[in-house]
Amino acid sequence: MPRYLLLSDIHANLTALEAVLAAAEGSWDRVICLGDVVGYGPDPNEVIDRMVQMGIQTIRGNHDKAASGEGGDDFNPVARAAIDWTRRQLRPENRRWLQALPSGPLGIDGWACVHGSVDDEDEYVFSEEDAARSLRHSPSPITFFGHTHVQGGFLLRNERVEGFRPPLLAGGESAPWELDPAARYMINPGSVGQPRDRDPRAAFAVADGDSQAIEFRRTAYDIASVQERMEGAGLPEPLVLRLAFGR
């Protein structure tokens, strides 16, 4: 089985995406993106171009839907302003690419891939209670999800749901996580472009189907340069500031 590089919530941050691809070089055979390619960040066309160039298998997120013209009316004012800006920037072919993205669950090599929960792509899975239904309803014992921008996940074992988080890693270290074949999992690689787990470094993971292990990883990137582009584009200040704090 190939090794997969797991990405999610890139949010139009090309600098973070390129940093992740460089840090993960040589450790994967294929790439999966769990949605929210655009929104918030300053590089929507550039990120989509990179995804298309690499042939990255992608499912849609709520920001991808909104940017392509579907929904977004329930977004908070800051997110809505960023989506309105993104819509104005998108080239027609990139809008069409977003519109064509499949929704989850998407089956890949026996894994299930979703953006939010298994039953609702827009639903956040933050707690054990949130995760319980998805863990039981998923078509696969291992489900990869995004949306929360928090690296880690949940497992169901002996009818009990438990949450887990990898340790905050320094430098280029990684945190391998061995999977129990008797458990069911929801696993979030974290956000590439806008982490919200108090670590501003870009988050990602590598899944090895043969060894049944997940490797959680972080990498630093030039946040200041992204903030400068966001300021130049007139994107909302809260979005600019939060990149440096990872929350």
Describe the structure.
The chain is of the alpha/beta class. It has helices at residues 14-23, 44-54, 62-67, 77-89, 92-99, 128-137, 223-233, 237-242, and strands at 3-7, 30-33, 57-58, 106-108, 111-113, 142-144, 152-157, 160-164, 174-178, 184-188, 202-208, 213-219. The strands form two sheets. Strands 3-2-1-11-12-9 form a six-stranded mixed beta sheet, with helices on one face. Strands 4-5-6-10-7-8 form a six-stranded mixed beta sheet, covered by helices on one side. Helix 2 (44-54) links the parallel strand 2 (30-33) and strand 3. The longest helix has 13 residues, at 77-89. The protein is globular. It starts with a strand and ends in a 5-residue tail after the last helix.
Q: Main traits of this protein?
A:
247 residues, alpha/beta, 6-stranded mixed sheet, 30% helix
Secondary structure elements and their pairing?
Layout: E1 3-7, H1 14-23, E2 30-33, H2 44-54, E3 57-58, H3 62-67, H4 77-89, H5 92-99, E4 106-108, E5 111-113, H6 128-137, E6 142-144, E7 152-157, E8 160-164, E9 174-178, E10 184-188, E11 202-208, E12 213-219, H7 223-233, H8 237-242
Parallel strand pairs: 1-2, 2-3, 5-6, 6-10
Antiparallel strand pairs: 1-11, 4-5, 7-8, 7-10, 9-12, 11-12
